[in-house]
């Protein structure tokens, strides 16, 4: 009776905590504690067995709980080992707590002129993490800082300083080949996306040789000198693949862009761009944020 009572208690405990964050299920294991088989004199039923049972409980601390979808963008869960790190102070100077509960709320905070929002637990403790560096790397091993998911300050733009192209120019082209490159360049006191058109002209007398010119969206030249680009018979570039372009825009503004054509080819086929990477972006305001599976917070 005692074993059965304990077993029912275990079941009741699991049911009561089915919605408790971080709760680990308890399992009840029954075992035979003492048994005996005997024959009663004159009995017609044959041998009889007598035994007692005991119960051992085991908490499933090595099992991951069930993950469920919620309507909160910032609810998190850890798959595997580890804990969320919380601190009673946003600067990390307070008391540190560890939890597996991933239900987080946004908490507003005035920091200078920037209206920011942090992630915090239901008890108001700030979720801590490692800051992302300007180059996109994670500064692990450094001091933890609060996880910021909203920052209303305007993000200053950055003009394009480098372009990396992966594409192809038609080896049999008889007419100039063009494609547009979006770049961020100064326009008055702001940074705006401009159209930089690359125009390839094949030398009809010298094989695998091209002249590369750059014009704006209105057809005005923006680079004073043409680039000479050469390829070998296998379509691979043989001239210097990286060039520095000094651009003079129609409004009088200037900019310098490093153009990388290392992965550009010359094969018979369409002239097209497969991939374009440039490091410029316009001024922007915060729209929303989200958290990826690897734990990184992204702003848009």
Explain this structure to me?
- This protein is mainly beta.
- The protein folds into 3 domains: 2-59, no CATH class; 84-154, no CATH class; 162-278, Tick-borne Encephalitis virus Glycoprotein, domain 1, CATH 2.60.98.
- Helices cover 5% and strands 44% of the residues.
- The protein is built from 1 helix and 20 strands.
- It has one helix at 2-16, and strands at residues 26-38, 48-59, 84-87, 96-99, 105-111, 114-120, 126-129, 145-146, 148-151, 162-170, 177-187, 190-202, 209-216, 227-230, 242-248, 254-260, 265-267, 272-278, 289-291, 297-299.
- Strands 10, 15, 16, 17 and 18 form a 5-stranded mixed β-sheet that branches.
- Strand 19 and strand 20 (297-299) form a beta hairpin.
- The longest helix has 15 residues, at 2-16.
- It is elongated, with a radius of gyration of 34 Å.
- The mean pLDDT is 84.
